[in-house]
Amino acid sequence: MYPVSITSPRLSLREFDNSDVDAVLAIYGDQAVAEYMSFEPRTRDQVAATIEHVMAAAQAPERLEYSLAGVLPDGELVAFLRLAVDVGHPLQSSGQIGFAFRADQWGHGLGGEGIQLLLRLGFEQLGLYRIWGARAPGNDRSARVMARQGMVEEGTIRGHLKLAGGWRDSVVHSILAPEWDPGQD
Ligand SMILES: CC(C)(COP(=O)(O)OP(=O)(O)OC[C@H]1O[C@@H](n2cnc3c(N)ncnc32)[C@H](O)[C@@H]1OP(=O)(O)O)[C@@H](O)C(=O)NCCC(=O)NCCS
Q: Pairing between strand 77-85 and 94-101?
């Protein structure tokens, strides 16, 4: 599906373009954002490469990766959101979400709105049955925002990611299509 465009009262999702590098750098280049994510703060060149990659992935004939810009009603880009459709087993119909907002936007309910937009994309538009997210064990903000959106904490994947500091566990949250309330935002 291309291009994706989904809107809620305070946030919209749209495709990335090359002019988004500096706005994404303000998110992915920030230590406060990267603290609980699986990478070190990114440089401008790394962010530019990420944007190139997600633009190419968006054009794939069978698109599996939906990395999308979260923008305010005035067009300002404040979030990097992602839904990646799982591949591997023919009986699966699931996708993993990821989300990062610029730090000055935290604490106003925008994170929950962004997750709801990703759930709309996954359940309504892509027809998935299960959507899940994996967070660092200490990422309490992420735990709260996923729980508030109805994403049940399932358990811990031990030794999930090898980061610069060593192996890290992840805590998994998920929601199934019949559990989702499309009216929530
Ligand atoms: C995790 C993250 C997305 C949460 O974003 P957020 O916008 O603060 O999350 P929410 O939508 O849940 O916002 C709710 C907070 O805003 C407050 N709020 C203010 N106005 C609100 C409104 N109109 N509606 C809802 N909540 C509102 C709530 O009280 C709540 O505060 P609390 O979390 O201290 O209880 C954000 O902190 C982030 O980008 N972190 C860095 C990247 C990251 O960790 N990503 C997740 C990786 S797994």
A: antiparallel
